[in-house]
Amino acid sequence: MTAPAPRLISDRLVHWATELPDSPALRFGGQNWTWGQWNDRLERLAGALGGLGIGRGTVVATYDKNSPACLDVTMAASAVGAAHAIANWRLSPEEVTYVLADSGAEIVFVGAEFAKVLESIRGSLPAVREVVVVGSDGGFEDQYEALLAGADPTPLAGAEPSDPALILYTSGTTGFPKGAMLTHANLNAHSAGLDPVFNTSHEDRYLLAMPLFHVGGTCPGVMCVYVGTPITLTREATPEHLFPGLVGATHAFFVPAIFAALLQAGEVGRNALATVKLLSYGAAPMPAPVMRGSLEAWPNARFLQVYGMTELAGAVVALEDEAHRDPAHPERLSAAGRAMLGSEVQIVDPSTLEPVAAGTSGEVWIRGGTVMAGYLNKPEATAEAITADGWMRTGDVGHLDSESFLFISDRVKDMIITGGENVYSPEVERVLSEHPDLLEVAVIGVPDDRWGESVKAVVVAKPGATVDPDAVIAYARERLAHFKAPRTVDVLDELPRNGTGKILKTVLRKPYWEGRDRQV
């Protein structure tokens, strides 16, 4: 069934509501919606948003775990020209305050279990005019369904392809998160590139278990709407939610840590994925033992690795199943893959900014329709990240082989990926530098067989002070999302520095990464 080329990300949903009104579209827990029913809800939400003064150039936000309401807001708000900022619910209240304030959101859809936190920070969010509670918990009652029920339906129209549809926040190199603005055109380009490698259809079912604040959550969901593939949405990517969600699922995307957990669950974990046709993974390198174990545990599944970033609307490079099992090129099992439809990859010398030959390492640059419109409120950071001719500087170090397979070996940016979450060292260092017993702090990533990397702080005590590593970790957890806090702390007499006084993190990292093929 050929669908017309979409201008907006909601266009395809409107199309399926017309062509397949009674076919399954979305499942969450015990709730099910057809394409026609989902479209009706979105038109009511669009009407409600219009009644609240939301239109082109405005921003709304969601602060919640996965829920149908979050997907609803993405589709309906973007259709009327607003951008949807999705806050990471794992962040500390201080970090959530920054994200919501920076986004300029006028309406916040908050999960009932986070409503108390939002109440506590509301005074720091002067732009917020309305708060809508989603679900019932802790004395807070659902307001979302009443909002829909009382609204007049409005067609899903009013935006332009160049309008930002999503604002997803990445960890910040300067210590604060940055909002990547992804337009309708970006997201449709991503769906067009992802569709051929995921290869889903109306008869399949995609398990959307990754958090919607993550590019690996919302953007594959948008791709499912693009293709017309039914979605099973889970509240979280935990066993109690995953196992029921996998019933009937044919396609799924997980970070490597979830594969590790399923393998550790033994027969229960193996059986949970036994009928899934495509197992895709990304957002962090897959540890070799987990990769080998997964290929053995699920021999009938097609494996697909994807590589990308928030600023690229998600995946732009894919390692397809054949490359996972190619006896002539076993080294390609550690590759990121080859450029997907609509994207270009080149390797550039970070000093000269000139492209390098195959086999030579340099910074990975990506160009194509998925490159973000820029960072919200940060023109300087945007100019640093995107070149004048449209290349996105990823900050990853890698090389291309003779057949254009991309291999990632290190990072230019001071970033750690732990369990699929990006952590920039300056964010953690900014917080730890305020600890009363610490004179100096350096944060590095070290190998972790479950999470890919884990965060380590290397510190120097102030004269006369004694540093308790557990107390330092607790201090960080009070002020940062737990995944950003160091898991381990080393105390040194001094930190290694070069002639200009810069801390040599390569020296700090070296003992932990010695003997490994890659440094990330």
Reconstruct the topology from this structure.
Elements: H1 11-19, E1 24-28, E2 31-34, H2 35-51, E3 59-63, H3 68-79, E4 83-87, H4 93-103, E5 107-111, H5 115-121, E6 130-134, H6 144-149, E7 164-170, E8 178-183, H7 184-198, E9 206-208, H8 215-227, E10 231-233, H9 239-245, E11 251-254, H10 256-264, H11 267-272, E12 278-282, H12 288-297, E13 302-309, E14 314-319, H13 321-324, E15 338-339, E16 343-348, E17 362-368, E18 374-375, H14 379-385, E19 392-400, E20 406-411, E21 415-418, E22 421-424, H15 425-432, E23 438-448, E24 452-461, H16 469-479, E25 488-491, H17 505-513
Parallel strand pairs: 1-10, 3-4, 3-5, 4-7, 5-6, 9-10, 9-11, 11-12, 12-13, 24-25
Antiparallel strand pairs: 1-2, 7-8, 8-18, 13-14, 14-15, 16-17, 17-19, 19-20, 21-22, 23-24
What does this structure look like?
The chain has 520 residues and is of the alpha/beta class. The protein folds into two domains: 11-302, Rossmann fold (3-Layer(aba) Sandwich); 415-513, 2-Layer Sandwich (GMP Synthetase, Chain A, domain 3), CATH 3.30.300.30. A hairpin with a 2-residue loop joins β1 (24-28) and β2. α7 packs across α8 (215-227).
Main sheet: strand order: 2-1-10-9-11-12-13-14-15
Q: What's the helix count?
A: 17
Low-confidence stretches: none
By CATH, the topology of the largest domain is Rossmann fold
**CATH architecture field of the largest domain:** 3-Layer(aba) Sandwich
The CATH class of the largest domain, by name, is: Alpha Beta
Class from helix and strand fractions: alpha/beta
Which strand-content bin applies to the residues?
A: 25-35%
Count the strands? 25
